[in-house]
Amino acid sequence: MGEGPSPVLIAAGEVYDMSRAAPTVSMLIEDGRCDAAAGTALGPLEKLGLSAAHDAPCRLLSPIDLQCVKAAGVTFAISAIERVIEERARGDSGAAQAIRDKLEDRIGGSIRSVVPGSKEAMALKATLIEDGMWSQYLEVAIGPDAEIFSKSPALSTVGWGAHIGVRSDSAWNNPEPEVALLADAHGNAVGATLGNDVNLRDFEGRSALLLSKAKDNNASASLGPFVRLFDDAFTLDDVRRCEVTLRIEGEDGYILDGVSSMSEISRDPADLMRQAMSEHHYPDGFILFLGTLFAPVQDRDNPGRGFTHKMGDVVTIRSQRLGALVNPVTTSKDAPPWTMGIGALMRNLARRGLLA
């Protein structure tokens, strides 16, 4: 601890340093070494003196390391409508409300009631095409294939307390509170955590081809506070039932609250994991953001322009079975730079004698 990143295991309130058993989280998962007896006891979590400061000797990092970072988009009806709004508004938040009213009136009920890929979904698609209302976002919302994309590189995610970043040239953006599933190398879900899949609505709204600029930026993905591993007391069914709350607190006194219920997801988490695995192979496993119901439309400053972040906002994502993920907001330019890539991690582990 303090010498470099170390996987930890929490069991019965005690924290165990697992770095001697497995120097990375991916190895810990793959080798089945998640046993406190193989670790070094550090004491109760509340007594470790954890700090959110970037240079603190003891702080929580993202609970993953070498895993690929994947994300599923447009997995809730409301998020599908909001993506169509971004597309039709060309990234202009001022045009969003009028488009939102029209779309909700026309397709809101129907898109919530169909099963993606079903005959009913295809009939709805045909009707919307005829009406000139079809969109690439509706294709992944109700078609057979989910939107699965690479969110960011391995080791790039930040953890509890760290700053999350939005591009300094973005004028319309928001957090995306989500549940994320951790998969082993075979695509099996082994646990769940909370995540913030930060989104730039103006960039993606201008063109879907700007998705990488909207999604993959310094400090633009947070995970934590920990991965809760599946066992008899916590299973994928608990993920299917969980509710995720969001609170945004601004330095200007602004407060926004929201709730995302996983029971309203349009595609089952197991199906999303299967589609993420597809015909790929992930030797170090992967993490999959499952998507969000929450798309903030509450006006912050000017009527009709909805929500966007201000620097200094504090975002708290919470779920009863997964804890709370808290991150202050800054720009990607001003967030601490990402410096520990795979090469730096391997050199650090070798220097500590953990690769033998």
UniProtKB/TrEMBL annotation:
Belongs to the FAH family. One of its GO terms (molecular function) is hydrolase activity. It holds the Pfam family FAA_hydrolase. PANTHER family: 2-DEHYDRO-3-DEOXY-D-ARABINONATE DEHYDRATASE (PTHR42796:SF7), FUMARYLACETOACETATE HYDROLASE DOMAIN-CONTAINING PROTEIN 2A-RELATED (PTHR42796). It comes from Stakelama flava. This is Fumarylacetoacetate hydrolase family protein. Residues 184-329 form the Fumarylacetoacetase-like C-terminal domain. Keywords: Hydrolase, Metal-binding.
